[in-house]
Each structure stands twice: as C-alpha cells, then as structure tokens.
Write a structure and sequence with these properties.
about 230 residues; alpha+beta; Arc Repressor Mutant, subunit A; 2 domains; 5 helices
Length: about 230
C-alpha cells in the first residue's frame, strides 16, 4: 500500500472538490509517485496536495515530492461558514452562520509546526479563500465542546479568490512596518486588527523564515525588526 494517501472513505466533500478543482483531469487524482500518493497533478505537471490542517504531517512527503518536481499545497481558508444541523435520523433542524471568519493570516495556523516549508525549493502555498457549509448531526458522538454534535461533512459553497505564496518575499505583506521600525506582537495585532494569538504565530513563523528578527525585550514583550 502506498504511503501518505488520504483515506478516501473518510475524505470530506470539500477535500474532494478542491482535489478535482486543481487536477488536470479525473485520471490525475490520487497518483502514485514513488512511495507516496499525490492528491492530484495539475495541467502544468505540479503535484497538488490539499491540506486542511497543519502542514507538519505533510512536510516529509512534500520535501520528497519537491525533489522530483514542483509542488503546490492548497490550504482552504473559510471566509464564511454556514452550519447546518440535523437530528440522528437525518431530519433538518436549523441553519446558522458561524461567528468565525478567515483571512490570509490563517496561513500561520498550518505553518506553525512547519515554518521552513515555504523555503523549500519547488514548493508553493496557495490559499483557497472560500465559503463552506458544514453538516452536523446530533448523534451524541461528537466533541464535548459541541455538546455531542458530530461534524458529518464539509462542502464548498462559494469561491472568493486564490492567494499564492510562491517565494519568500511574498510573505513580506505580513510585515506592515518599515525597515528598522521596532514592533511587538501587540503592535502587530493592533496595526492589523488581529487576535494576539494569530500575531504571535505569525511572528514566530516569520522569524524562523528570517524575515523578522528579535532584537531584545520591552518589559516582557519581544521586540522585532524587519
């Protein structure tokens, strides 16, 4: 059995839709490449990997594929999410909008534990800015945070745009400060209207990529420059 192929039986509608969206044809999905299975191969011959979660489990596979050819990681960012809830018998109960809204800053969630992946030769990261519909079922088997409600499937409902990060300099858009200007996690969060946790993740990754540098502390806060 080939390694690193997603379990097709557990594949969400969202993952499947994106996979076929980027594939050259239906025959160019789930393609064996050495000991791995690429999600798809594009018309340009790129290996396509659709990853909805952290990039860490994908890192080794991507590096090995990148040694053979070009790789494009597709990461969906949900701008607006609609939640549809059904009972255990499949009868519709209600629909509502989620309070969470994604932006390009969400790229630092999957990069947190794979911060050097953007520096790997032949690797590009593309954000698919989309809306989704998430089907939930009140079956008592889901997370306690959702009070036992299970997530049954995720579907793409609308497409906004594609945002491509092809080279290191593309990430400079996340540093809204001039060269030599000092800043902290808090000042970045304030400048961009971010939650502190996202700003902290961003600066951690950008520091690993050597796009920003820690130069000391202001009280308990790390101070950075470009």
């Amino acid at each position: 059995m080939k390694k690193s192929s997603i379990g097709i039986r557990n594949e969400s509608s969202l993952h499947k839709t994106l996979k076929f969206q980027y594939a050259a044809s239906a025959k160019k999905t789930e393609v064996a490449v050495g000991e791995y299975v690429a999600d798809a191969i594009s018309e340009d011959g790129e290996f396509i990997e659709v990853q909805t979660g952290s990039f860490a489990p994908l890192e080794k596979k991507v590096k090995e594929l990148a040694a053979i050819g070009k790789v494009r990681i597709i990461h969906p960012v949900v701008v607006t999410k609609t939640l549809e809830t059904y009972d255990a018998n499949g009868d519709f109960l209600y629909r509502r909008k989620s309070n969470l809204h994604g932006s390009i800053w969400n790229i630092f969630n999957p990069l947190l534990h794979a911060p050097l992946l953007p520096l790997v030769k032949n690797v590009k990261i593309e954000l698919a800015m989309i809306d989704t519909t998430e089907r939930r079922v009140r079956d008592g088997k889901g997370s306690w945070r959702r009070k036992g409600v299970s997530i049954q499937d995720k579907q793409l409902s609308a497409w906004h745009e594609r945002v491509l990060f092809a080279k290191k300099s593309d990430y400079l858009c996340f540093i809204p400060f001039k060269k030599g200007e000092k800043f902290t996690v808090s000042s970045l969060a304030h400048r961009e209207g971010l939650k502190t946790v996202i700003a902290r993740k961003a600066l951690y990754v950008l520091a690993k990529m050597k796009l920003v540098k820690r130069i000391g502390k202001d009280g308990r806060a790390w101070v950075y420059i470009r």
